[in-house]
Design a protein that fits this description.
The chain folds into two domains: 214 residues, Periplasmic binding protein-like II (D-Maltodextrin-Binding Protein, domain 2, 3-Layer(aba) Sandwich); 204 residues, Periplasmic binding protein-like II (D-Maltodextrin-Binding Protein, domain 2, 3-Layer(aba) Sandwich). By secondary structure, it is of the alpha/beta class. It contains 20 helices and eleven strands. Strands 1, 2, 3, 6, 10 and 11 form a six-stranded mixed β-sheet that branches. A three-stranded antiparallel β-sheet has the order 8-7-9. A two-stranded antiparallel sheet has the order 4-5.
């Protein structure tokens, strides 16, 4: 499983985990696992997260030399039950020194309950130097920085064949209307559906569709509306959100435009999201919307990714030409302890030194501005880094990761599936909104 996908398979338990904090009051209280501020440490720092398998091996490799130089043993533990267990551990007095949170909302909840330690000054200095204000905000609660960003992903890439575009006489679109015009022209020239999509992902089915909607909310309505939507200050039934659904529907609900090589519109729900790579690689599918991690799927399918290769990608265009807004994901590193060794590890993980070390090992990117894009192991990852480092870029974290799990990985995912199956948009929006917790 690729790094960018970790949160998709653990998010459904997030809301239950947060709620569990209020139910486990008899097992301890905030701060029961903390060491005294400024304590020396014992040379060992425990780190807990969701990054597993090959990616976990690379994570440990990324800090191996630093461990030896600083005589600190970083003991990493991965768990598929992270979001439930981190809350239980915090409440029960057995939290790790450091946690790598895939969802800023869960980190913020634990910080607001005083389980987490404010970030040391050295960490905040790194964040101020190497990350944008957007990224810093995801680690900040009530004006205090608790967490530093780690890795990142860029969503909303549209994958296509440069050779086919040239053959069809179409260019990379600069606006959403241009994209619809390109779609129409390809359909007319080939007499086939240009787009392929797959929303099937086990218990997490539907998430690729929420990514589509999030892209359109940000690009059509702007970051202020996006932020209000995430906070439920405007509901799913708001006209701005309905407009985003309608725009996505111009492609995904159009039987002339989907589902290339797989079937009709409803086949989107039964098509595993990873199965699309082969069709994109061999040209059966002309257009596909997916995050930067799709690069690995293309390579695994035998395709080459690059501006002049089999497959390349451009960011989903905005309503107006020149707008640079993207959605994405990533992790936030925060600590339950503040002994000297823990603070040293936090500082290192927030540094450009660590970002260059990990990205150079392959498969991931970071929004750290001190990262050399050339360290990335593929052209699309290099392109994603440039987008994240561009001061003109407006970045917003994946909305479904920021919403309560009952909505983001609950009614939102289910609603998208129902929508593809033919449920009316208004009915779907009402059902999604009904998932919001009452308090």
């Amino acid at each position: 499983m690729r790094l960018s996908l970790h949160r998709r398979f653990i998010a459904p338990v997030a809301f239950a985990a947060i709620a569990g904090l209020t139910l486990a009051g008899c097992s301890g209280g905030p701060g029961t696992t903390d060491t005294d501020s400024g304590a020396e440490g014992d040379g060992t720092v425990s780190v807990y997260g969701t990054i597993s398998e090959t990616e976990a091996d690379l994570l440990e490799e990324s800090w191996a030399d630093w461990e030896k130089e600083n005589k600190i043993d970083i003991q990493y533990e991965a768990s598929k039950e992270f979001e439930a267990q981190i809350s239980i551990r915090a409440q029960g007095g057995s939290a790790p020194d450091i946690a790598i949170f895939p969802q800023p909302g869960l980190m913020a909840d634990l910080a607001s309950r005083k389980f987490l330690k404010p970030a040391p000054k050295a960490v905040e200095d790194n964040v101020d130097e190497y990350w944008s204000e957007d990224w810093k905000a995801y680690g900040t609660v009530d004006g205090t920085l608790y967490g530093a960003p780690l890795m990142a992903s860029v969503k909303g890439f549209i994958w296509y064949s440069p050779a086919k575009f040239k053959e069809w006489g179409v260019e990379v679109p600069k606006t959403w209307d241009d994209l619809l015009a390109v779609t129409k022209k390809i359909q007319e020239k080939t007499d086939k559906a240009p787009w392929c999509a797959g929303f099937s992902s086990g218990e997490a089915s539907g998430w690729p569709g929420t990514d589509w909607v999030e892209d359109l909310v940000l690009r059509e309505a702007g970051p202020e509306t996006y932020d209000k939507w995430v906070a439920n200050e405007i509901p799913f039934t708001d006209p701005a959100i309905k407009s985003a659904f309608d725009s996505v529907g111009d492609i995904l609900l159009n039987p002339d435009y989907v589902n290339a090589g797989f079937g009709d519109v409803k086949s989107i729900n039964s098509t595993p999201f990873g199965d699309l790579a082969t069709s994109v690689s061999d040209g059966t599918c002309a257009l596909h919307h997916q995050a930067s991690f799709f690069d690995g799927f293309i390579v695994d399918a035998g395709g080459e990714v690059g501006p002049d290769a089999d497959v390349w990608a451009f960011i989903t265009p905005a309503a107006e030409e020149g707008s640079q807004a993207v959605t994405g994901g990533g992790e936030i590193v925060a600590a339950f302890s503040d002994d000297a060794d823990t603070q040293k590890v936090q500082e290192y993980l927030s540094s450009a030194e660590w970002a260059n070390s990990r990205v150079g090992l392959g498969g991931v990117i970071s929004a750290n501005s001190g990262l050399d894009p050339a360290k990335a192991t593929s052209p699309i990852l290099q392109e994603a880094i440039k987008i994240l480092q561009d001061p003109e870029t407006t970045f917003r974290f994946d909305a479904s990761d920021l919403m309560p799990g009952a909505v983001g990985s609950g009614t939102f995912w289910k609603g998208i599936v129902n929508w593809i199956n033919g449920a009316p948009t208004g009915e779907v929006l009402t059902s999604i909104e009904a998932g919001w917790p009452s308090n």
